[in-house]
Design goal:
The chain has a six-stranded antiparallel sheet, with no helix packed on it. The protein has a three-stranded antiparallel sheet with strand order 11-10-13, with no helix packed on it. By secondary structure, the protein is mainly β. A hairpin with a 5-residue loop joins β10 (about 110-115) and β11 (about 120-125). It has one domain (about 10-185): Jelly Rolls, CATH 2.60.120. It is about 10% helix and about 40% strand. The structure holds 6-O-phosphono-alpha-D-mannopyranose (M6P) and zinc ion.
Length: about 190
């Protein structure tokens, strides 16, 4: 294993931007249009309003070796698609026995979790919330506020991302804007 020199990254709590700049990637509506329950509305927005930015991830990438601890900051922009709040794609870890920690930096969010055998959990997050994603739980974050929701995340380098299950089955719960409130509802199209 190669010895890495220790380093520090300054994190902007409002934007999630890293200084010095590390890796960054963005996900737009076109990257996840089929993941929103109202696909027609997602298609309409894409055609009429353009490919809106949904979230951005700043990430300290490290070799995928045992003991390395990548970390990142995710900023989810405020907004919704047909009432369903902006969210991340969500994933299981390829190595399902690996957990993760999320720490809220600014804004208001909801962390949706579920297991293959149908258990679900919804945790609200604000600045200062430290949420634990235990092994075996798929996880997706949702911005339920009117401002950007920004959180910091820490995981094990070999955890990996398994997006396929969620892309195929969706999450069992949706987080919707109803009468000004964030409401968690069953996803009618989800796997049983
Ligand atoms: C967090 C971490 C990352 C993840 C990112 C975006 O920062 O969990 O590993 O990539 O959120 O979520 P997703 O990969 O589901 O799009
Ligand atoms: Zn993860």
């Amino acid at each position: 294993m190669k010895l890495i020199q220790p380093f520090v990254t300054e994190v902007n709590f409002e934007s999630g931007v890293f200084t010095p700049r590390r890796g960054v990637y963005q996900r737009r509506l076109s990257d996840m249009a089929g993941m929103y329950a109202d696909r027609e509305e997602a298609a309409r927005i894409l055609a009429e309003e353009g490919d809106r930015l949904i979230y951005e991830v700043h990430i300290v990438q490290l070799p995928a070796e045992e003991g390395q601890i990548p970390h990142g900051a995710t900023r989810i922009l405020a907004g919704n698609i047909g009432g369903e709040f902006h969210m991340t794609k969500g994933h299981y870890h390829a190595r399902r026995e690996q957990g993760e920690v999320y720490f809220g930096l600014s804004g208001r969010g909801m962390l949706l979790l579920e297991t293959v055998d149908g258990k679900t959990s919804e945790l609200e997050m604000v600045a200062g919330s430290a949420a634990y994603v235990p092994p075996f739980w798929a996880h997706r974050t949702v911005n339920i506020g009117a401002e950007d929701f920004v959180f910091f995340s820490v995981w094990e380098a070999r955890a990996g991302h398994d997006y396929g299950t969620i892309e195929r089955d969706g999450f069992r719960k949706l987080v919707m804007l109803r009468d000004g409130w964030a409401v968690v509802v069953d996803n009618p199209k989800a796997a049983g």
